[in-house]
Amino acid sequence: MSQNPLDMGSLRPFDVVARHGNLSRAAAALGTTQPALSYRIKQMEELLGVPLFRRRPRGLELTPEGEALQLAVRQGLERIDEAVQSICRRARTPTVRLATDFAFAAFRLMPRVADFRRANSGVDIHIVAAQSLAPEIADDIDLAVLFGDRDDFAEDFGGSRDLLIPERVVPVCAPGFLKRCGPFTRVEQLLDVPLIHLDGTPESGWRWFTWESWLRQAGVAGHPRASSLGFNTYTLVMQAVLAEQGVALGWYGLVDDLLATGAVVQACDCTLSSERGYWLLRRRGKLSPEAELVVDWLSTTEDRAA
C-alpha cells in the first residue's frame, strides 16, 4: 500500500458515488463522465490497496473499508460546507459589532434585538459582551454602549458619545419578599433587610451607585443591620432578587421589563439619579450605513422608553 495521502479532490466524488450507488447517476450529479469517475475511484482503491466498492448487477455497494472511509469523508465535508456557508453569509450580510457589558446585553439588548433584525433583515448585530463595565474595545468594534461619566471614555473609543440612558436607581425586590418583609415606607427600613449588591473594585465603584453611596445620597445614616449578599454579575444579583433573597438596586434601562411584568417591584418610593449613565460611543471616522442603522435603532428605542 502506498503511503502517499489521498488526493483531497477525490473525496467529494467518492462521497457522491457512495451516496448514489451508481456511477452514471453520480457522474451526472458531478457534471463529469462515467469513465472519468470510474478511473478516479480505481486510483483511490489502488492507493489504499483495498476495494472500496463491490460491483453488483444493479449498481455499487460499499465494502466495510468503503463504509469507514465514507463516514469520515461525509463528516469532514459537512463541516467544510458549514464553514463555507458561514463565510458566505458573513460576506453577504453586513455585521455591526457592538461592545457592552453583560448587564446591558442581557437585560436591554437581548429582549429587543429581535425587533431590529426583523426590521433590518440584511444586517446582523454581533454583541460582544464583557464582564467589565469598561471592557477593552477591539479594533473591529463599530459601536459601544458603556456605563460611566461622559469623560470616562474619551480615550477608549475616540469618536462621539451620546448619553443613551441616564442613571436612575430605585430599590427593587420580589413581590413575595415585599409582602413578607415590607412595606418599606421609609428608606431607613431597608437597613433591616438583606441588601443584595454588585461586587466591584474601588475604581468600578465610582462608576455606578453602590448601596453605600445610594443610601448616603438618600440621606440615610447608619449601616445595614442585616446580612448582605454580593455577586460579581448583575444577572446573579437579579436572580437573587427573583428568588426573594433581599433588596437590590435597580437601574432603569435594565430592570424596566421586570418592573413592567411585575416580576420585581419597587421596594420603596425613592428614585435617585446622577450624571452617569449608559453612553453610546461611535468609532472615530465615518460609520458604515449599517452601523448608522443600529445607532438610530438604539436612540429611537430609548426615546420611546423615556
Task: Summarize the structure in words.
This protein is an alpha/beta fold. It has three domains: 8-92, Arc Repressor Mutant, subunit A (Orthogonal Bundle); 95-163 and 277-305, D-Maltodextrin-Binding Protein, domain 2 (3-Layer(aba) Sandwich); 166-276, Periplasmic binding protein-like II (D-Maltodextrin-Binding Protein, domain 2, 3-Layer(aba) Sandwich), CATH 3.40.190.10. It has helices at 11-20, 23-30, 34-48, 64-92, 102-119, 175-181, 202-205, 211-217, 234-242, 256-261, 289-305; strands at residues 53-56, 59-62, 95-101, 124-130, 143-148, 158-173, 195-198, 229-231, 247-251, 265-266, 272-283. The strands form two sheets. Strands 3, 4, 5, 6, 7, 8, 9, 10 and 11 form a nine-stranded mixed beta sheet that branches. It has a two-stranded antiparallel ribbon with strand order 1-2. A hairpin with a 2-residue loop joins strand 1 (53-56) and strand 2. It is elongated and about 90 Å long. The termini are far apart.
